[in-house]
Amino acid sequence: MIEQAPVLIVVIPLIFAFITPLIGWWRKELCYPWIILSLTLSTFCSVITLLTVINTGVIHYHLGGWLPPWGIEYAVDYLNAFVLVIVSFTSLTVAVYSKKSVELELPEKTIYFYTVFLLQATGFFGIIVTGDMFNLYVFLEIASLAGYALIAVGEEGAPMASFRYVIMGTIGASFYLLGVGYLYMTTGSLNMADLARLLPDLYGSKVVLVAFTFLIVGVATKMALFPLHGWLPDAYEKAPSSVSALLAPLMTKVSAYVMIRIMFTVFKPYFSIEMLPVTTILSWIAAAAILYGAVMALAQTDLKRMLVYVLLSEVGYLVLGIGLANKNGLTGTILHIMNDACMMVALFMIVGAIVYRCGNREISQFRNLHRRMPFTMAAFVIVGLSVVGIPPTCGFFSKWYLILGAVDTSQWVLAGVLVLSSLLNAILFFRVIEYAYIEPRGGHDNGGESLAVVREEAPLTMLIPIISVTAGIVLLGLLSGRIVSTVIQFAIPACF
Amino acid sequence: MVDFIVGKYNYWIYIVLMMIGFYAMIGKKNLIKKIIGMNIFQTAIILFYVSIGCKKGATLPILGHAHGHAGQAIQTSAYINPLPHVLMLTAIVVMVATLGVALAIGIMIYLKYNTLEEDEILKAVK
Amino acid sequence: MKILNLIVVVITGAILIYGTMDMPGWGDPDSPASLHVSPRYITKTMEETATPNMVTSVLADYRAYDTLGETTVIFTAGMACILLLRKRRNGHG
Lengths: 496, 126, 93
Known about the structure:
The structure holds 3 protein chains of 3 kinds.
Chain A: H1 5-26, H2 31-56, E1 59-62, E2 73-76, H3 78-105, H4 110-129, H5 133-152, H6 158-187, H7 192-198, H8 206-223, H9 232-238, H10 241-266, H11 269-275, H12 278-298, H13 303-324, H14 327-358, H15 369-372, H16 374-388, H17 394-408, H18 412-437, H19 444-451, H20 460-491
Antiparallel strand pairs in A: 1-2
Helix pairs in contact in A: 1-2, 1-4, 2-3, 2-4, 3-4, 3-10, 3-14, 3-20, 4-5, 4-10, 5-6, 6-8, 6-9, 8-10, 9-13, 10-13, 10-14, 12-13, 12-18, 13-14, 13-17, 13-18, 14-16, 14-17, 14-20, 16-18, 16-20, 17-18, 17-20
Chain B: H1 2-27, H2 31-52, H3 82-113, H4 118-125
Chain C: H1 2-20, H2 32-35, H3 38-43, H4 45-49, H5 54-62, H6 64-85
Helix pairs in contact in C: 5-6
């Protein structure tokens, strides 16, 4: 059982997804517990996998018993296992959360929604756990296709946003496929470990340079890195709330993981750093993304759209750490994959809860929200502090490592950008908190009205995930030293 | 020089095809034309992969007289490389699936706005 | 705008063509792709999988997991289309 855990993480939700429509036709209301069960089992397997990796080292699982360069291999090291645990916990949380919002937004389509939702999670797990370049492409497409469909069933304008995502997503995936083709042509292999062994002799080859460029551009498109982000704001704003809560934190983090994998496992770090100035270019693009996201977020009046731009700026943080390419920078990125997944999932769930109760997302309409939904807004404040980077919350620690990384390489401008973006985030979140908490002065009738506000908290299936993720944000912040010393320091490539 | 051109020209043709599709995807305003461009792009990638597997003087990757001549040694150079073909069988399926989902989204858009021109739809959304 | 798109396309194409400069020629039996992994598929297909058709043996045996992924892609697309296009029974959707 334990040695099968890496493959079970993917296969369990896959089989459960095939059965979901059948269960739905029999008893529609059983779909929800069914996917919760499936994701719980997956999460359990991913925790077992992480513990096995910590105790015994890298796991190699040969599918069908064929040895790696010929068959497909699942290679799970510290990095995979860590990201797997994050992704499985996040998708489980969103699954629990989705019940009420799906009943409200897609009452007629719950069966198919849950099926595609589970396939989306399967795609993410498959991308992370695999050790084969082409297998990664197949699961990337499963995740993307499910994502297109889930976004398109959102509010007014969602189909068009989703269509643009289809076009950009297909360009990204096709570029990735071309890159794999170029690599296959010069090496004859598709296995990541095998490629890492064969490639150093070919680093001068033009084919390898072009392959690397296309792989990185393809992944950056999927990740919505700054100049290629055009599809993201509309798509994630218009998607149903539980879909935004699933895709926004995970698609970007999974792509960031793939980028780390390609740059530092498939290619040796010295190729990415010295042979091509990729890391330098990436870190400047990342700085642009951070500032662009923060400034655009300032201009929004819609809370969900503001968060989408905050997400763009968080993608910048992830890439900045990759671009710095030193120990602290990469520690920051890997820690930020975890912290940002928690923060984004919490923020998008909170927006969903507010929309569920109030029916609108305009920040200026948030008067007295702290009386109406006290727990949700308290959670919002804590998560907001974490995004800004206030010490006891986890957001502080990943930013701290990123700043240390920037200082290590004497990139003072980049360190300055990080500090500046914290200030911008502080303005952003304080603006929302001000509207929600501080009551307007004067006007007697206004005061009378505010006292009459009924407390109308979000339903429990929404509130429990929100509160637990918020508690997790504080807890992970307190434990982050421990997480770095037990997992992350082994997850970064050995040469740093 | 001639060898160089003869050895590479088919890749160049695929790249030109890919770029035609790529231009249609990012440059055209009609959604169906974008979808057609997407298909051209993906088909060109499939052609590119299949041409990786080619070997001069080799035949289809199916053993002739496989049964009954078990002892005979099999020459690697006699059969073309089967792996790119397998990969492309998967990629074709992915392509069809993407096409299906893209068209389904296109239908949704058409039912809602009664047009498939991007600028008109964007106007209607705002 | 049109010009910008054209420039992007031309640059992408130029990078791809630049990559072909170091590629093995078309149909070269000594290219790395024909030497590293694939010979085992060709020579051992009867011995290991008892299938004369190598494409089948790779598809359904050596790399069968990709084929599982492929079926899942189709299933995802099918479910996605139902999710997108299914009409509501009441109301005028």
